[in-house]
Description:
By secondary structure, the protein is an alpha/beta fold. The protein is 47% helix and 16% strand. The protein has two domains: 3-133, no CATH class; 139-420, Rossmann fold (3-Layer(aba) Sandwich), CATH 3.40.50.
Amino acid sequence: MRTAEPRPAASARATMTAVDPARWPDVARPPKASFARTALTTAVLRRALARLPLRVRFADGSWLGKGGPVLEIHDAEAFHGRIGGQGTIGFGESYMAGEWDAPDLVAALTVLAGNADRLVPAPLKRLRAMWAPRRPSSQRNTPDGARDNISRHYDLSNDLFALFLDDTLSYSSALFRGFPASWDLLAAAQHRKIDRLLDLAGIEEGTRVLEIGTGWGELAIRAAARGARVTSITLSGEQRDLALRRIAAAGLTDRVSVELRDYREARGTYDTVVSVEMVEAVGMEFWPEYFRALDARLAPGGRAVVQAITMPHERMLATRDTFTWIQKYVFPGGLLPSVEAVAATVVDHTRLRVARREALGAHYAETLRLWRERFAGRADEVGALGFDETFRRMWTFYLAYSEAGFRSGYLDVQQYLFTKETRTR
């Protein structure tokens, strides 16, 4: 449907600070798509948007869609041109540039995520390899590449993460008693999640624990408080420094060591291995090495507990070689596995078996909502740390994009318990 309605009084683009071309070159100066490609993109997008439960408003007062959350396109030419040239990267960069906005960003993105398979016609999907940007080899998660990829996200600033995370500094899905949740319940929900993982792993007095992916140390602290001896490894120097200070403040330095080390460099044998939302940063090429590392470090009869974000298997296969907005700007080198991919990798490459799996996607959507609202409420403090408006729009889009993925069911998060077979392979 396309008709006219009163033009919005003001656009987000009109009030935005200019994009710094030195810091954000592709946002300030978008790659040029050919006229034919832009024209095709425009036709495909408008046809798709017209059929969705959205209300898409253009700067000239016209609109498309069947009604629902509002998506406001302030610069249609730039919007279509970016998507024509860079696909989903262009869609995200267009938001960063202020060329489109949404009063309820999560609601609009949830509609798009829930209809992702309908946005591109089947004949064009088969030509994905011809138009979708390919993942750069520089983002391969080799030992050196993984250090660089991790640093680009987790070494941004401990102070930045502290502005929107709760006092536990847990950067993974919480576990709530019910919905909706409030901010004052988040720390308890994070402890509930951690305690469930520790219970699954059977962690108690004297348990030898290897944690792959330290974060800011909360899981290691709670494991050590049970009497366990914890070796935690991370590739983030910023996280390690703060985790060590927090461990010392808890009086647990004698029970926890934190090492700057790749999972492939871990040594020793442990009663349990715990890894929370770290496999997403490993990359498909190295999933066998990751799960073999869990197997190698785990004593016979031991337990490994992994919390992992997952995506549908067919979607994973279709996008595994594609360079996405989130890989370019937020998690370089990242790829979400599917439940099927995890199961196949474990069977084919390890002596582990899946003893339990539970999905918690609704809990992640709620966690992300609380983070996003906290981040938005502290925008001035984010700016005071030196992060400009383009960064703040990028981070807002990342949090909303992720929340929408879980609300639509496009994404999920799993808690796995693996046990180790004692027989030889």
